[in-house]
Specification:
This protein has a single domain (8-225), classed as Hypothetical protein af1432 (Orthogonal Bundle). 68% of the residues lie in helices and 0% in strands. The protein has 14 helices and no strands. The chain has helices at 8-21, 27-36, 43-50, 54-64, 78-85, 87-102, 114-134, 139-151, 156-162, 164-176, 181-189, 193-204, 208-215, 219-225. It is elongated, with a radius of gyration of 19 Å. The two termini are 33 Å apart. 33% of the residues are buried.
Length: 230
């Protein structure tokens, strides 16, 4: 007796249902992104939004005082921190923290672990930022490249959670058949994590640059950097 064959259309409907149940981004990050997208935004505008969220406020202060910025004097003023970090950095910090808060359920990680997922994502994010710097992208814009790299694999989560055994087979196929992961996904599911990432981007109304990254095939960058995809 053979099991029932699941069509690509049925799989996609299941994935859509999973995504529809994923939590939305926090109200604070939504407001931060709306505020930052205003061409006339000021540090005081952002201060009014961020100060309502103690966790985000703490992370902004922590970031500006980190070793990366090597400041002589500690910054304790939120407005001062916003001025020093810049609008783009604040926006991308808020988005990253919110996404990490949403994607924290270890039960959703079956074919791979949450630690593997975030380690890989951070490596790609850092590499994307370094590539942007080498390409002459202004420093105040390079954080967006980091966030795009950090979030590029979000589409793997619904695939892995809905079909953990099948997803393990796609991971094995990468090695046994010497094919990219997105090809293995397409062969088995009829959809790849890039398309699924695009669906998540639409749900969260992410900005166009990051949404396009989630929808695209970035394996060429990963291969060029020799970053192993699990």
């Amino acid at each position: 007796m053979t099991g029932k064959v699941i069509t690509a259309e049925q799989r996609l409907k299941t994935i859509h249902r999973y995504i529809s149940k994923m939590p939305s981004l926090s109200t604070t990050v939504t407001k931060v992104m709306e505020t930052c997208n205003n061409p006339s935004v000021s540090p005081n505008d952002l201060n009014r939004v961020i100060s309502l969220d103690p966790v985000l406020t703490g992370q902004v202060i922590k970031l500006v005082n980190s070793a990366y910025y090597s400041l002589v004097n500690e910054v304790t003023s939120l407005t001062r921190a916003i001025i020093m970090l810049g609008i783009n950095t604040i926006k991308n910090l808020a988005l990253s923290l919110s996404v990490m808060g949403v994607i924290k359920d270890r039960d959703a990680f079956r074919a791979f672990t949450i630690d593997e997922f975030w380690s890989h994502s951070i490596c790609v994010g850092v590499s994307a930022k370094l590539i942007a710097a080498a390409a002459g992208v202004p420093a105040n814009e390079s954080e967006e490249y980091f966030v795009a790299g950090l979030l590029h694999d979000l589409g793997k989560i619904p695939l892995n959670s809905c079909y953990p055994e099948d997803y393990q087979n796609t991971v094995k196929a990468v090695s046994t058949e010497s094919i990219p992961l997105y090809v293995a996904e397409q062969n088995l599911f009829g959809v790849n994590h890039c398309r699924v990432g695009g669906i998540i981007a639409e749900k969260w109304t992410l900005n166009r640059n990051i949404a396009d990254t989630l929808k695209s095939i970035i394996s060429r960058t990963i291969r060029a950097l020799k970053i192993k995809s699990f």
